[in-house]
Design goal:
The complex is a heterodimer.
Chain A: H1 5-25, H2 34-57, E1 66-74, E2 83-90, H3 92-115, H4 122-141, H5 145-163, H6 170-201, H7 206-215, E3 222-223, E4 226-227, H8 228-243, H9 252-255, H10 261-270, H11 273-282, H12 284-289, H13 293-311, H14 317-337, H15 341-369, H16 385-399, H17 405-423, H18 432-456, H19 461-467, E5 480-481, E6 484-485, H20 497-504, H21 509-512, H22 530-534, E7 549-550, H23 580-611, H24 617-620, H25 622-629, H26 634-711, H27 716-735
Parallel strand pairs in A: 1-7
Antiparallel strand pairs in A: 1-2, 3-4, 5-6
Helix pairs in contact in A: 1-2, 1-4, 2-3, 2-4, 3-4, 3-10, 3-15, 3-20, 4-5, 5-6, 6-8, 8-11, 10-15, 11-14, 11-15, 13-14, 13-18, 14-15, 14-17, 14-18, 15-16, 15-17, 15-20, 16-18, 16-20, 17-18, 17-23, 18-23
Chain B: H1 4-24, H2 28-54, H3 58-88
Classes of the chains: A mainly alpha, B mainly alpha.
């Protein structure tokens, strides 16, 4: 099989086509075109699955990749080369990511057709959903930072539209603006980083950047007093922080739940937030060269722990999930920072599966009972058995219970973090990264099970409040709550099947391959785990003297590299000079510690919310709870200090300059000069143009009119006489 | 012996008769006849000058052209006159003032 553009492009193009059709003709289509959007994502999924199958199960070298480019526009003249290339870069990582994005997005689309049914924004929702997905797929396929940035911004726009889709709600509008503005702060830095790389290298293609790193083109270059690589890496990472909602640009993500829940699922799981991690992973060699990995690790650790603490006091089911997303993204960023490249990417994939499922489950609950405040819920296990099953599987995964996917990926990140913080001879202060990481893992187990217990277990308070039934008399018949009847859930193809499919992928062996013996591990002829083999940090050396392929040429298959493909070792650790033995020790300790911590968190939640033998935190530490409920005051800080004091003060200063200086001297002065000029112009206008020019012309025309009216008699013989007289006078003048 | 002067006098007489007819008669057909006379005067002048001054055939060819043009002009003119008569039921020249307004 050969890879032509035609076998790759539909992944990106089919959702785009669905977007265009739905945007212009969606209202005329049956069901407002939701089936079209879903179908288009399914087409993407089929093509992605083919690529995934070839890359994962095919006989490729692990470092095999497909790179096809074409010149988008060429501004070269003379010796200056200003070419902008576009293209596709496909390697194992993109193949896995494409399958994840299209698969999860397909299930979310399918769920949305149920969730958004009879919603007034149904049609509009299915315009943005495929565009969002296509932008993410395009971003994954991109071979350069420039097209990545384009898709990045399309996603920013789509998230803005999806969050604010209920545009009559003021809070939704505010939340969408907040998301857009906050990510914009990061985007500016990303663009700055891209421009900086462009100015130094004349290209922002990944392969060119890798080659430049290997060739040492960054050596000795500096900008603003810091090394160029640091500057560029920092800018790009700041962009990633905005998109992946890392501290302190995290404020937008919790508010992003104002949109419909499937939209949140898409933002939180498959697209948008993973884009930041994606660009950090793609630019990982630059981050290492720029020596900012410690910064990345610390930011990730702060986010992972801080968001987890906030999640413990949230009462809105979607808010808990939103903060858990923040926290999990923190783990991915920790993974990038501590050199756990492979595990960080694995966490992107595992997290996408279970977080999509969690959000869809939350959507299923909200749609069924029309309530999302957890204190008002409870005992839903009886009514929503399938949702309960799926959500429990995902909770086990995110909490890091062994045999589930979250454990596999998070544990590896934490193991590497442990090695990084304590054993790699780094600055001892960086021990904070594993400490916060493990603490956050415990909190994750606690708040997720708190959510489960409050939502699905205990007694159903909705009945109790409305009808005054005694305890324990809850059957499903005829109990109404806020005018809505809670029905027993039946297996519905569009509601439950996406949940259950995603729940299946919360099992760890899909990713680790260890539970099924060696059957997955035998891929590639190596007895080990497929994910660890297939994903490794970019080896920049192999891009030196790399000749890129043009579009339409077929790719070259190279099986001979299979034996020479080098991986650092099975943990996928990509940091500098790892000590194998210590790393192994760190992973052993990390695994044991994270199992204990996870179970401790679950136990604490059990004691607080099921047994009720331990008082919940809210009553025990009211001050701390208030701080957490205020989300550490970040929103207030941004509004009160940055915007009210800083930005408005700056505005006032600028206004004074504007009013006091520009207005008084420049504008008013110009006005005075203008007034004199105006008088001159007026005189000129009245006398020269009006009187002489316009009126004069009129008078002249009138005069001619008088004469010509007489001459133009209409009598032919009169004309003859005139003719003869003219001829005669002409001849007469000739003779003299 | 015929000289150039005699031809010119004949042609002058023809021209003046034509001119007077053209200017004084109110009948459109008569005016067309006057124009024919003027054209013939011009043609006679061409032939005479060609014979006595340049001594080649240029003038003859010109006069042939004039005859052809006169024939064409008479055809078109008479057609117009017939249409005019059909509309106005007169061929009085002073009635032909539609183009004025």
């Amino acid at each position: 099989m050969e890879y032509t553009v035609g076998s790759i492009a539909p992944i990106f193009l089919s959702p785009v086509i669905a977007f265009v059709i739905n945007a212009f003709f969606g209202r005329k289509l049956p069901r407002q075109g939701d089936w079209l959007a879903t179908l288009s994502i399914f087409i993407s999924f089929i093509f992605s699955a083919r690529i995934f199958g070839d890359f994962v199960f095919g006989q490729f070298a692990t470092d095999f990749f497909i790179h096809k480019t074409f010149t988008w526009f060429d501004l070269s003249h003379g010796s200056e080369i200003w070419k902008v290339d576009m293209g596709i870069y496909l390697d194992n990582m993109s193949a896995i990511m494409l399958l994840m994005v299209s698969g999860v997005a397909f299930l979310i689309h399918l769920f949305s057709t149920w969730y958004m049914d009879h919603d007034e924004k149904h049609g509009r929702f299915f315009v943005f959903l495929p565009l969002f997905t296509s932008a993410m797929l395009g971003l994954v396929l991109s071979d350069n930072l420039f097209s990545l940035f384009i898709f990045w911004e399309i996603m920013g726009f789509c998230s803005y539209s999806l969050i604010g889709i209920y545009n009559k709600k003021e809070k939704a509008g505010d939340a969408s603006l907040k998301a857009f503005m906050t990510t914009r702060v990061g985007d500016v830095f990303l663009l700055l980083g891209i421009v900086a790389l462009w100015m130094l290298l004349g290209s922002v293609n990944y392969v060119d950047i890798y080659a430049a790193i290997a060739e040492g083109k960054f050596d000795g270059q500096s900008v603003l007093g810091i090394s160029f690589a640091t500057f560029a890496a920092l800018c790009i990472f700041l962009g990633a922080m905005g998109k992946s909602a890392q501290f302190p640009l995290h404020v937008w993500l919790p508010d992003a739940m104002m949109g419909p829940t499937p939209g949140s699922a898409l933002i939180h799981a498959a697209t948008m937030v993973t884009a930041g991690v994606w660009v950090s992973l793609r630019m990982y060699p630059l981050m290492v060269l720029g020596d900012i990995t410690w910064f990345i690790a610390v930011i990730g650790a702060i986010t992972a722990f801080g968001a987890a603490t906030i999640a413990t006091v949230q009462t809105d089911i979607k808010a808990v999930l939103a903060y858990s997303t923040l926290s999990q993204l923190g783990y991915m960023i920790i993974g990038v920072g501590v050199g756990s490249y492979n595990a960080a990417f694995m966490h992107v994939i595992t997290h996408a599966c279970f977080k999509a499922c969690l959000f869809l489950s939350a959507g299923s609950i909200i749609h069924s009972v029309h309530e999302q405040e957890m204190p008002k819920l409870g005992g839903l296990r009886k009514y929503l058995p399938y949702t309960h099953f799926a959500m429990m599987a995902c909770t086990l995964a995110i909490a890091g219970i062994p045999f589930f996917s979250g454990f596999v990926s998070k544990d590896r990140i934490l193991g590497d973090a442990l090695y990084y913080g304590f054993m790699s001879g780094q600055n001892p202060l960086l021990a904070i990264v594993p400490i916060l990481g493990f603490a956050g893992a415990g909190l994750t187990a606690f708040y997720m099970f708190r959510m489960m217990f409050l939502t699905f277990y205990g007694e159903n308070k909705m009945h109790h409040d409305d009808h005054g039934h005694g305890h324990g008399h809850h059957d499903a018949k005829g109990h109404k709550s806020h005018g809505h009847e809670i029905h027993h859930e039946h297996l519905d193809a569009r509601q439950n099947v996406p949940l259950l499919i995603l729940a299946v992928f919360t099992l760890g062996f899909w990713f680790s391959g260890t539970l099924t013996g060696q059957s997955f591990g035998n891929l590639m002829g190596k007895k080990t785990e497929w994910f660890k083999i297939l994903v490794e940090a970019p080896q920049v050396e192999k891009f030196v003297n790399y000749k890129r392929e043009e579009f339409s040429k077929t790719d070259l298959r190279d099986k001979t590299h299979l034996e020479h493909a080098h991986y650092h070792h099975q943990t996928g650790y990509a940091g500098p000079n790892p000590d194998e033995h210590k790393l192994h020790t760190a992973h052993t300790i990390g695994a044991i510690a994270s199992i204990f911590i996870a179970f401790a968190g679950v136990l604490l939640a059990f004691l607080m919310y099921i047994k009720k033998s331990v008082n919940p935190w809210a009553t025990r530490f009211p001050g701390l709870t208030r701080v957490l409920q205020n989300k550490y005051g970040f929103d207030d800080f941004y509004i009160d200090v940055l915007i009210k004091k800083g930005l408005l003060g700056l505005n006032r200063g600028l206004a004074w300059i504007d009013m006091g200086i520009y207005d008084r001297y420049v504008v008013d002065g110009a006005a005075a000069v203008n007034r004199v000029l105006y008088k001159i112009a007026k005189w000129f206008d009245n006398v020269v143009i009006d009187a002489i020019g316009v009126d004069g012309t009129g008078v002249a025309v009138n005069l001619f009119n008088l004469v010509l009216r007489i001459v133009q008699s209409g009598k032919i013989q009169f004309y003859f006489i005139m003719l003869v007289m003219v001829l005669a006078s002409y001849i007469w003048t000739l003779n003299f | 012996m015929m000289s150039l002067g005699s031809y010119l006098i004949i042609s002058l007489i023809l021209f003046v008769i034509g001119l007077v007819v053209m200017l004084s008669r109110k009948n459109i057909v008569a005016i067309l006849l006057g124009i024919e006379l003027i054209l013939n005067a011009a043609a006679l002048n061409f032939v005479a000058y060609s014979r006595y001054v340049t001594n080649n055939l240029d003038g003859h060819i010109f006069s042939l052209f004039i005859i052809v043009v006169a024939a064409a002009e008479a055809a078109v003119g008479l057609a117009i006159v017939i249409r005019f008569f059909q509309i106005k039921e007169t061929i009085h020249i002073d009635e032909a003032t539609q183009l004025r307004n």
